[in-house]
């Protein structure tokens, strides 16, 4: 047995081969039900439709009876289906730059092309909104995206304008956002044709919090060795947390998923056979290369066990006893809203929690706000934590910004570095 | 005599090196990679064997590296070019080192500690600027063979700048300068200066700086400009163009860990860093 085999023998002992997560079948069912509920646009819908940014005030919309559609989820579907590059030029032609969010340009391009991957759920188009509700806590682009649809459908575009780069979240910050959320209510009530019921709002917040807790517990199972699922799996299984928070269906799904993941932990079933290295992923997924990257890392016996991205749907501050203010605080405590220092402290906690050997940063070409490579963070964190960091250049949807060959060499070289360090006894 | 071979299947050229157990270079070769990477690897290997006056049966192990490392079917293992350039450089020059490898399609900066252990690496962005392709584009615009670019640059008397980030835009900028009556000699040197500025922006350069790769081997003016820009001596080891292949041969000799999906796991001993036979440029 050579040194690396010795170094990893303890981890490898008793591992089972990778097996598919059974809950994936239920996931497909839950997601299909969610999409089918929108029905055909404009045809006898039982409830108005609100579009919401991924970390916008979804609970408020659910409490008012809206069916809530998340276009970022649609953008991710276009990326994962590798159709985004077909649609983006249509949006570029409208004056939307190739350098701005490729979710935005793929989604608008798909709309202009009259195509959608939702067709597999019986929808011929994305559900037509009655109102669009944004929160700029993640970026400016979501607002510009919604404004395009607002003009197209002549419907109101309202939202919350959040501060950015917060070192700490103060009560004053929370008050300012809470006030903006309250100001949304009259417009939303008018569109919904109903008054906001405080009990329904509290219930939506309670369900969101439960969903968040369950999702967090699912993610945390990957702190065990071997990790029962990876970042690449989690980007798929996070679907209900994104589109169904505030609804019981999401909680139901995560109870099932959590039970299965805990079972895998108990049986030492790893997502990566004979897991030798563990990494943290910082930044957006590269949707069109999820499978190939997952296969690449698996081939190197490397499990990408945790990520900022999947953690971003953990809203630990939601409190049904104080719905509006807790929604406001949750929207500001998010990683993406925080300063470099706060982000570094967060990643340092995750590195310890998940006991990783290195960090992979994705420099996402069209998503500067969810890219943390551009102000020296990889170098600072690597030096501070004593672990190597790797920067992969790519994009969330625009595959022209990604080089398969260069990325493969980058990743393989990084794993060589980890392997050599382990062999030579260099520890962090 | 026990011999080892390394094949560096690069995007433009495939290089092969034969070494003995003491890492003495017995034979080398450089052939065009073309579209048939496997065929180029076989040709390069055969040429290096002929150059070393030995046959394949006398080779204990062959390891591959480079862009086409997975295409070398007869290799016993592979390491990335990040490893092999670092490994090769560390054989000749004691660390800590910063190794700059400038190839046809990419540029890399590899930081090694005193024992030759890799600390980090950086690759150029998905862009030709800062690579050999940039120089080829410039030579094309100047209407000269790439082999003549350095001879042209050494005659430069005026300091010109190509400020564009993009190779295509730099080509256009070059045409503007030609229209303005600027001399080809000064434009050739400006191209090297532009390449150097891209490379020095890739990392922090502390410790001894070593340069390897085909561009380094054939463009000494670029190396001098690099030295001037970094305010430090640039060490060029023997066989800079074949350094990746040499590193692969060392990996074969040392039984490094082949981490690739197709690679077995062999014991690893890092190459002791010594400082022999290096060429220094400043």
Describe this structure in words.
The complex is a heterodimer of chains A (428) and B (282). With 428 residues, chain A is an alpha/beta fold. Chain A has one domain (3-423). Chain A is built from 18 helices and eight strands. Chain B folds into two domains: 3-124 and 202-281, ATPase, nucleotide binding domain (Nucleotidyltransferase, domain 5); 132-199, Nucleotidyltransferase, domain 5 (2-Layer Sandwich), CATH 3.30.420.40. Helices cover 36% and strands 22% of the residues of chain B. A six-stranded mixed beta sheet of chain B has the order 8-7-6-9-10-11, sandwiched between helices. Chain B has a five-stranded mixed beta sheet with strand order 3-2-1-4-5. In chain B, α2 packs across α9 (243-254), α3 (132-142) runs parallel beside α5 (167-179) and α6 crosses α8 (220-230). Chain B is globular. The A-B interface holds A 2-5, 299-300, 382, 388-389, 391, 393, 401-403, 405-406, 409-410, 412-417, 419-421, 423-424, 426 and B 67, 79-83, 106, 115, 117-123, 125-126, 256-257, 259-261, 265-268, 270.
Largest binding interface between chains: A-B, 30 and 27 residues
Biggest sheet features of chain B: 6 strands, mixed
| Strand proportion of chain A | 5-15%
CATH architecture classification of the largest domain in chain B: 2-Layer Sandwich
Mean pLDDT of chain A: 93
* Number of spatially distinct domains of chain B: 2
How far is it from the N-terminal to the C-terminal residue of chain B, by CA? 38 Å
**Proportion in helices of chain B:** 25-40%
Report the β-strand fraction of chain B as a percent range. 15-25%
The assigned structural class of chain A equals alpha/beta
- Uncertain runs of chain A with pLDDT below 50, 5 residues or more? 1-17
Spatial shape of chain A: globular
How many structural domains in the coordinates of chain A?
1
Shape estimate of chain B: globular
């Amino acid at each position: 047995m050579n040194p690396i085999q010795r170094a990893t023998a303890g981890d490898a002992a008793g591992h089972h081969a990778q097996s598919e997560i059974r809950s994936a079948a239920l996931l497909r069912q839950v997601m299909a039900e969610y999409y089918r509920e929108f029905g055909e646009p404009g045809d006898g819908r039982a409830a108005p439709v609100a579009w919401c940014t991924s970390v916008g005030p979804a609970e408020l919309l659910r409490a008012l009876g809206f069916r809530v559609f998340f276009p970022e989820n649609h953008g991710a579907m276009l990326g994962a289906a590798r159709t985004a590059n077909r649609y983006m030029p249509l949006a570029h032609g409208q004056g939307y730059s190739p350098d701005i969010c490729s979710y935005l340009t793929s989604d608008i391009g798909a709309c202009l092309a009259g195509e959608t991957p939702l067709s597999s759920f019986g929808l011929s188009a994305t559900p037509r909104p009655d109102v669009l509700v944004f929160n700029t806590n993640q970026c400016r682009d979501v607002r510009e995206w919604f404004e395009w649809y607002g003009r197209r459908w002549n419907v109101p575009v309202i939202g919350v304008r959040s501060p950015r780069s917060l070192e700490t979240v103060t009560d004053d910050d929370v008050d300012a956002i809470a006030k903006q959320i309250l100001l949304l209510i009259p417009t939303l009530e008018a569109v919904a044709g109903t008054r906001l019921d405080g009990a329904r709002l509290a219930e939506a917040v309670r369900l969101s919090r439960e969903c968040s807790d369950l999702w967090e517990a699912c993610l945390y199972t990957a702190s065990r060795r071997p990790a029962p699922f990876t970042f690449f799996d989690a980007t798929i299984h996070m679907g209900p947390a994104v589109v169904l928070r505030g609804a019981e269906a999401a909680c139901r799904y995560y109870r099932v998923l959590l039970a299965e993941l805990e079972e895998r932990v108990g049986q030492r079933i790893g997502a990566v056979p004979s897991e030798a290295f563990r990494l943290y992923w910082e930044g957006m997924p590269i949707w069109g290369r999820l499978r190939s990257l997952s296969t690449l890392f698996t081939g190197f016996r490397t499990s990408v066990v945790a990520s900022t991205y999947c953690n971003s749907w953990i809203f630990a501050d939601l409190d049904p006893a104080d719905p509006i203010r807790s929604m406001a605080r949750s929207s500001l405590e998010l990683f993406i809203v925080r300063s470099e220092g706060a982000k570094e402290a967060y990643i340092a906690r995750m590195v310890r929690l998940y006991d990783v050997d290195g960090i992979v940063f994705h420099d996402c070409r069209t998503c500067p706000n969810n890219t943390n490579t551009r102000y020296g963070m990889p170098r600072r964190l690597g030096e501070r934590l004593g672990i190597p960091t790797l920067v992969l250049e790519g994009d969330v949807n625009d595959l022209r910004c990604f080089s398969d060959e260069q990325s493969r060499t980058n990743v393989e070289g990084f794993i060589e570095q980890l392997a050599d360090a382990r062999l030579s006894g260099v520890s962090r | 005599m026990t011999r080892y071979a390394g094949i560096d299947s690069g995007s433009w050229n495939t290089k092969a090196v034969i070494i003995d157990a003491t890492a003495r270079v017995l034979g080398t070769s450089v052939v065009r990679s073309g579209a048939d990477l496997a065929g180029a690897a076989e040709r390069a290997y055969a040429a290096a064997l002929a150059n070393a006056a030995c046959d394949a049966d006398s080779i204990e192990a062959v390891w591959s590296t480079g862009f086409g490392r997975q295409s070398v079917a007869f290799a016993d293992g592979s390491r990335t070019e990040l490893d092999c350039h670092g490994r090769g450089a560390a054989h000749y020059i004691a660390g800590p080192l910063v190794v700059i490898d400038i190839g046809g399609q990419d540029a890399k900066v590899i930081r090694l500690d005193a024992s030759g252990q890799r600390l980090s690496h950086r690759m150029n962005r998905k862009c030709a600027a800062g690579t050999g392709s940039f120089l080829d584009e410039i030579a094309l615009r100047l209407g000269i063979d790439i082999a003549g670019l350095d001879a042209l640059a050494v005659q430069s008397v005026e300091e010109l700048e190509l400020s564009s980030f993009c190779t295509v835009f730099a080509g256009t900028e070059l045409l503007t300068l030609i229209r303005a009556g600027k001399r080809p000699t000064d434009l050739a040197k400006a191209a090297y200066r532009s390449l150097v500025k891209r490379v020095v922006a890739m990392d922090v350069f502390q410790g001894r700086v070593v340069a390897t790769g085909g561009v380094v081997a054939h463009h000494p003016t670029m190396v001098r400009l690099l030295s001037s820009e970094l305010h430090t001596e640039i060490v060029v080891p023997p066989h800079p163009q074949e350094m990746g292949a040499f590193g692969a041969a060392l990996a074969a000799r040392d039984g490094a860990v082949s981490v690739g999906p197709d690679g077995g796991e062999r014991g690893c001993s890092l190459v002791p860093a010594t400082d022999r036979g290096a060429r220094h440029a400043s």
